[in-house]
Design brief:
about 300 residues; alpha/beta
């Protein structure tokens, strides 16, 4: 009798140890079987469509620090899974607006550019904006593309991004910079719409406006003095690493205005005068862009 009881005790002990082993190894075995290698994984199978949205996430719930580096890779995204409708307008860039040519109508492209600038209402020294203009042609007619304070415009390269117009104004160009702002990496051309109005490609207003890597073009006009770059009265403009082509005058500084020109090619094929007004540090080139003097230091 005692022998049979002893065997029974050993049997119970064996069953107890086997059950404990299964309890310990079960989850690991199950995890291996389902090919999961992380604890507490959340997948699309665990989240119903529409379960996570902006109204259910508190502010700053998702930040760069909470997303693992290279956590989202192109191979993990289905084609066209991220579109404009999926991302809010400011989901990627907080203070940068990208303007792209949407179609063959270059006038519509200019409208988009003007509307992008108009949409900026809170630019400031602590909240500056950048408007990036993609390659293409933006025909503005008699309209002016006018910047705002603390808003820069950056094209995709001279000759690659072109803003054109036939603006007829004594003071405003096809593009007008309002200080402080900068225009760079772009070509601006005023084709001229009337022989009785001056032709101005770029105008500047205020104490701090600048052109950098810009081509400004203004053809000759039969009636009045035309200028490719104009600094409005009481303004200061800086021009660097650019190319200015005008049928008559490259630069015009109105009353109490100043223009500082550095390392810039200048061509005025129909008029020997490159500038009027207070224009300093001027590198002068002829119509073939041969250097005439090197007074600029």
């Amino acid at each position: 009798m005692s022998g049979r009881l002893s065997i029974g005790n050993w049997g119970l002990a064996f069953l107890f140890l086997l059950a404990a082993a299964l309890l310990v190894g079960g989850p690991a075995a199950a995890q291996t079987a389902t090919d999961l290698n992380c604890a507490g994984c959340v997948s699309t199978r665990n989240i119903a469509p529409g379960a996570v949205n902006a109204s259910r996430l508190e502010d700053e719930a998702v930040t760069n620090r909470k997303i693992r580096s290279r956590g989202i890779r192109s191979g993990s995204l289905a084609s066209d899974s991220v579109t404009n409708r999926v991302l809010a307008p400011d989901a990627v860039f907080m203070q940068t607006i990208v303007v792209r040519p949407e179609g063959p109508n270059a006038q519509d492209n200019c409208t988009d550019l003007i509307q992008a600038l108009d949409s900026i209402t809170d630019s400031s020294p602590t909240n500056p904006f950048l408007v990036i203009v993609e390659p293409g042609r933006y025909d503005c007619g008699n309209r002016t593309v006018r910047t705002k304070r603390y808003v820069d415009i950056q094209g995709s390269g001279e000759g690659i991004t072109r803003i054109r117009g036939n603006r007829n104004s004594e003071n405003q160009g096809v593009v007008e910079l309002v200080s402080p702002s900068e225009l760079r990496s772009i070509t601006v051309e005023n084709l001229g719409g009337s022989q009785f109005q001056p032709v101005i490609a770029i105008s500047g207003v205020g104490e701090r406006t600048s052109l950098r890597s810009v081509t400004a073009i203004a053809p000759a006009n039969l009636s009045t003095v035309n200028s490719a770059v104009l600094a409005r009265a009481d303004s200061f403009m800086s021009v660097r690493d650019s190319r200015v082509i005008s049928g008559q005058v490259a630069f015009f500084a109105q009353q109490n205005a100043r223009i500082n020109v550095v390392n810039t090619e200048i061509a005025t094929p129909f008029d020997p005068d490159n500038a009027f007004g207070d224009v300093a540090c001027l590198n002068a080139y002829d119509e073939n862009l041969f250097l005439l003097n090197s007074a600029c230091q």
